Amino acid sequence: MSLGCLPGVAAAVALVLCAYGVEHAAEDAAALSASAARAAALHQAPRPAVVPRSAWLGDTAREQPPPRYDDEVVAVFVHHTDSPNGYDCADAPGIIRSLYDGQTGARDWDDLGYNFVVDRCGTVYEGRAGGTDRPVTGAHTQGFNHRTTGIAALGTFTEGVEVPPEMLRAIAAVAAWKLGTSGTDPRADVRLVSSNGGSRYAAGTTATLPAVAGHSDGYMTDCPGAALKARLPEIRTLAARLQGRATEDTVPDDTQTAVRNDNDTRNEEQVP
């Protein structure tokens, strides 16, 4: 009689052991997830002050489709606007409005391509619509608009041009903040998948690029200018410091992977 009961007993034991394993696997996964979340939170930089787009656009925005979003931001592309440098910072909103008019008028884009614009006094302006705290898909680096943020320095920074320290600090602050939301080290490399063959990489190609990159890293252009491009290492180091990272830490390569190639061409514009 006891022998007849063995299969049932064995099945019950197996069921208990299976449940125990599943329970502990779930607990381990939850612990790992919580640990990763804590690690990411440790390196979240504060949000810098951002002037809303209403300051330069007012209530005269063109009719446009709803913003598009990615799941996170793992890279930043730095640009310059290729506009005059000798402006009074009080005139920056009007200059940004002119950039918007040019891109949405002559080029017939749906909005300003950059997610943020920084003037020479270090003031940060909201660019493309959709919410500064959200991972808005920009239109700033052809082939690499997904999972990235575009920060434009207001001016022209070709070789020999001085880049104001206030501008450098503001770019670093935005980069640290946006990359911190995904736990990305600004000094690391990331993997991005090109969505357009007009970039430096054929569509579908996985490119390894700096987490804080210049426009020219992803597209055939002189942007952000030789002078600003030369300051990117300084921006990366400052951004890492703003995230609370020890600058002597070893930075692993390819710490993040951004894979998105959905053949969406609406946001495939690029700026100079």
Keywords summarizing the entry:
alpha/beta, 272 residues, five-stranded mixed sheet, disordered N terminus, 8 strands, globular
Walk me through this protein's architecture.
There is one protein chain. With 272 residues, this protein is α/β, with parallel strands linked by helices. Helices cover 35% and strands 12% of the residues. Strands 3-2-4-1-7 form a five-stranded mixed sheet. A three-stranded mixed sheet has the order 6-5-8, with no helix packed on it. Strand 2 (116-118) and strand 3 (124-126) form a beta hairpin. Helix 4 (165-180) crosses helix 7. The protein is globular and about 45 Å long. The chain starts with a helix and ends in a 14-residue tail after the last strand. The relative contact order is 0.17. Residues 1-6, 9-20, 31-37 and 253-266 have low confidence and may be disordered.
The stretches of 5 or more residues where confidence is low (pLDDT under 50) are 1-6, 9-20, 31-37, 253-266
Percentage of residues in strands: 5-15%
Overall, the morphology is globular
Rg from Cα:
23 Å
Which secondary-structure class do the elements indicate? alpha/beta
Physical arrangement of strands within the biggest beta sheet? 3-2-4-1-7
Q: What's the main sheet like?
A: 5 strands, mixed
Compute the number of strand runs: 8
End-to-end separation = 85 Å
Helix content: 25-40%
**Average predicted local confidence, pLDDT:** 84
Give the SSE order as H and E letters.
HHEHEEEHEEEHHHE
Count of helix runs: 7
